[in-house]
C-alpha cells in the first residue's frame, strides 16, 4: 500500500491540475468599429444637401443626381400631377431654371430609417414654356435602405 501512495498522489495531482486548467484561449473576433452617432442636425444637413443637389441638377438638366438619390419606387407630386423616377429625365429637359434658393428647413423623424424634410423654395424659370410658381413649400420623404438614404416621395405646393 505504501508503494501505491506516491502513485495515487501523482494521479490526484494530475486530475486536479486537469480539472482546474484554464481552457486554451480562443481568439476573440475583431470588434466591428462603431459607427459615429449621427445627430438629428447632422442628418438634416445631409438630407438638405441631397435636396439642394437635386434642385441644382434640375437647374443644370443633369439626371445623374436623380439616379443617385431617388429610390426606384419614388413618387413626385406637383401642379402637373404625379410622376415617378422614370419620367424625371424628360421632365427636367422641359424646364429652364434661372435661379433658386432653399430655406426654412425642418425635419421630422418618425423612426430610425425614415425622415420627412420640409422647406421653402424660391425659384425663377419656366417649364414647358410656362412660368413656374415663384415660391413653393416642398416636402420630401427619405428612407434609409441598406445604410443609404433615398428620396421616396417629393411634393411641392405653390405658396400664396
Summarize the model shown.
The chain has 160 residues and is an alpha+beta fold.
Can you put this structure into words, describing what you see?
- The structure is a single chain.
- This protein has 160 residues and is an alpha+beta fold.
- The chain has a single domain, classed as Nuclear Transport Factor 2, Chain: A (Roll).
- Helices cover 31% and strands 42% of the residues.
- The chain has helices at 4-20, 40-60, 64-69, 88-93; strands at residues 70-78, 81-84, 95-111, 114-127, 130-131, 135-145, 148-158.
- Strands 1, 2, 3, 4, 5, 6 and 7 form a seven-stranded mixed beta sheet that branches.
- A hairpin with a 2-residue loop joins strand 4 and strand 5 (130-131).
Report the CATH architecture.
Answer: Roll
Q: What is the CATH class?
A: Alpha Beta
What is the fold named in CATH at topology level? Nuclear Transport Factor 2, Chain: A
Question: Could you give the distance between the termini?
Answer: 109 Å
List the topology elements.
Layout (H helix, E strand, L loop, with lengths): L3 H17 L19 H21 L3 H6 E9 L2 E4 L3 H6 L1 E17 L2 E14 L2 E2 L3 E11 L2 E11 L2
Amino acid at each position: 500500500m505504501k508503494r501505491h501512495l506516491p502513485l495515487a498522489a501523482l494521479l490526484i495531482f494530475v486530475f486536479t491540475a486537469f480539472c482546474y486548467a484554464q481552457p486554451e484561449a480562443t481568439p476573440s473576433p475583431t470588434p466591428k468599429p462603431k459607427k459615429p452617432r449621427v445627430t438629428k442636425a447632422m442628418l438634416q444637413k445631409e438630407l438638405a444637401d441631397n435636396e439642394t443637389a437635386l434642385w441644382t441638377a434640375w437647374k443644370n438638366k443633369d439626371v445623374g443626381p436623380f439616379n443617385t438619390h431617388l429610390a426606384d419606387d419614388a413618387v413626385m407630386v406637383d401642379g402637373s400631377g404625379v410622376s415617378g423616377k422614370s419620367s424625371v429625365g424628360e421632365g427636367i429637359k422641359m424646364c429652364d431654371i434661372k435661379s433658386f434658393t432653399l430655406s426654412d428647413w425642418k425635419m421630422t423623424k418618425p423612426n430610425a430609417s425614415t425622415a420627412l424634410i420640409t422647406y421653402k423654395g424660391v425659384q425663377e424659370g419656366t417649364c414647358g414654356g410656362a412660368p413656374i410658381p415663384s415660391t413653393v413649400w416642398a416636402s420630401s420623404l427619405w428612407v434609409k435602405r441598406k445604410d443609404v438614404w433615398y428620396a421616396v416621395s417629393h411634393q411641392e405646393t405653390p405658396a400664396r
